[in-house]
Here is the input.
Amino acid sequence: MTREKNIATFLGCEAAYDEANIVLFGAPFDSTTSYRPGTRFAPRTMRAESYGLETYSPYQDADLESMAVFDGGDLELSIGSVELALKAIGDFAAGVLADGKFPFMLGGEHLVSLPAIRAAQAKYPDLAVIHFDAHTDLRDEYLGVKLSHATVIRRVWDILGDGRIFQFGIRSGEGAEFRWAKEHTTLRRFDFTGLTETLRAVQSRPVYLTIDLDVLDPSVFPGTGTPEAGGVTFNALREAAMQAIAGANVVACDLVELSPPYDPSGISTATALKLLREMLIKLELCPKPHQRALPSGLPAGE
Here is the structure.
């Protein structure tokens, strides 16, 4: 990964690193996928297919071309070591945060969120996580493995503890996971009911927003490794993401679990791209104090 301009960028994301507020980067990793791999191809496919999308948003009457977004390309991640791959992701996210910029990561499977959240929590100790997903991701282990896309939010809980993880859209998981969530996270089933109350609860606390795109119904988003019937519509997800960005102090975020090989039509990629465009524009229109460099001597998280 370089901080120099790429020849090929996401449409409208052509700012130089030093000029950018937001740093977009890919984490092409799917080594712990439990069902159908392929998410490693998502960032590259999204970049290539973005040129079928307009930069102008009729939803927000704003244009991505006028926003200061740097596309850092895709990280080169270890194929043989989960730990080395996660370390590379965490190191890059930490560097972006240290530069006073906003890291926006494109997965990859959901495990890539763990090191990015860890990096954000290191800078902002009072971090909260808002999590949109079809799956609980709260198993303590999956097939004997602690680091998995099926365990990622449980590993996040290891870092944050109780009362700081807010889950929405959940419609799949073991009964034990749902029972565990009652004691340790705030979990909302099926949709985004309760998001307004959550945003009031987090108030000015720094927030990491992680969106597993399989929260969408597979009828509109079949291109994912673990599709689950009964999901939300695109507009419901778009509106929830806009609400979260406007109502919370979001300091970093990600979109994960697009798997282009399972949707040859390209509709899933187009859907992910439209959400990406709307989120990037909203983030630029709603700047937060925690997204900027901290003044000298000011403790992180204050």
